[in-house]
Amino acid sequence: MPIILALLSSVIWGLSDFLGGTLSKRRKAIAVIGGSQSFGLLFVSFLALALGVWTWDTTVWINGVIAGAMGLLGLVGFYTALATGQMGIVAPISSLSAVVPVTIGLVQGERPGSFQIAGIAVALIGVILASGPELNGKVDSRPVFLALFAALTFGFCVYFMAKGGQINPTMTIAAMRATQVAIVLVLALVLRSLGGLVKKDLPLLASIGMTDAGANVLFAFAASLGLLSVVAVLGSLYPIVTVLLAWWIHKERLMPVQYIGIAVTFSGVALISLG
C-alpha cells in the first residue's frame, strides 16, 4: 500500500507542477503559490473535517509549520526555475530532494531490502539522466541553481511532512498549507500586490492547489505506513510526469538520454516494488 500511495502522489505532483510551471510563465511565482495554496488549504481543511481528524496536536503542527516554510521556499525556487528554464530539465533536478529524507532514514536505522536499495540507486540515477542534456554548460545556469535549491528545501519539507504524517497525515498538510498561505498573505499585504493574478486564473489556481495538496496527503499517508527511505524516492518521481506533459503539450524536445533516464527510473521503481 505505501508503494502505491507514494507512486500515486508522484503522478499527481507531476501534474500539479506542470500546471504551476505553466502559469508561472505568465504570473509571478510567489503569486501562483499564494493563490493555489489558498485553494489547497480549503481542500485539505474540508478533507480533515470530512474524515473527522481535525484535531490539535503540537507535534503535528510544529512539523507542519516547518514543512510548510521549507516547502514554500522550494516552490518559489522551483516555479521560478520552471518559468525561466525547460520543464524537462528543471523537474528532474528538483527530484534529487529524495536524497535528504533517504539519508536521514538510513541514519536513523531504516534498513530497506537489497532489491529496494538497488531500486533507490537506479531510480535516482534515472532522474539524473533525465536532466543530463542541460548540464553541459549550454544553458543559463540560473534555472539549474534554483532547481538545486528547490531540491534541498523540498528534501527537508518531505522529511518534516513524514514526521508529522506518522501522527496525523491530513492535519500535517493542513498545517503546511496554513503556514504557506499566512506567509504569502503577509507578503501580499506588505507589497500591496496580487502578483498580476486575474479572475480567469482562478480555475487553474484551484487545480494546482488541490492537486498539490492531494499529492501531499497521499505522500504523508505513504510515509506513515512505509519506510521513509523508500517512499521518499517513489514520491520524488513526479518529474517524469512533468517531463512527459511538457513534451506532449508544450512540445519540449527530449534528447535520447532523457528517454533512457525515464526507462531507468521505471526500472528502479520495479526493483523497489519487488523488495
Strand-residue proportion:
under 5%
Return residue spans where pLDDT drops below 50 for at least 5 consecutive residues.
none
Q: In total, how many domains does the architecture comprise?
A: 1
Order of helices and strands: HHHHHHHHHHHH
The major pleated sheet works out as:
none
**Helical percentage:** over 70%
The coarse silhouette is globular
Q: Report the span from N to C terminus.
A: 13 Å
Q: What is the number of helices?
A: 12
Strand element count: 0
Oligomer: single chain
Radius of gyration from CA coordinates: 18 Å
Task: Record keyword descriptors for this entry.
275 residues; mainly alpha; 0% strand; globular
Descriptive account of the structure:
There is one protein chain. With 275 residues, this protein is mainly α. The protein has one domain. It has helices spanning 2-24, 29-51, 58-84, 87-94, 99-107, 114-130, 141-165, 169-191, 202-225, 228-235, 238-249, 256-274. Helix 5 crosses helix 7, helix 7 (141-165) packs across helix 9 and helix 9 (202-225) runs antiparallel to helix 10. It is globular and about 55 Å long. 56% of the residues are buried.
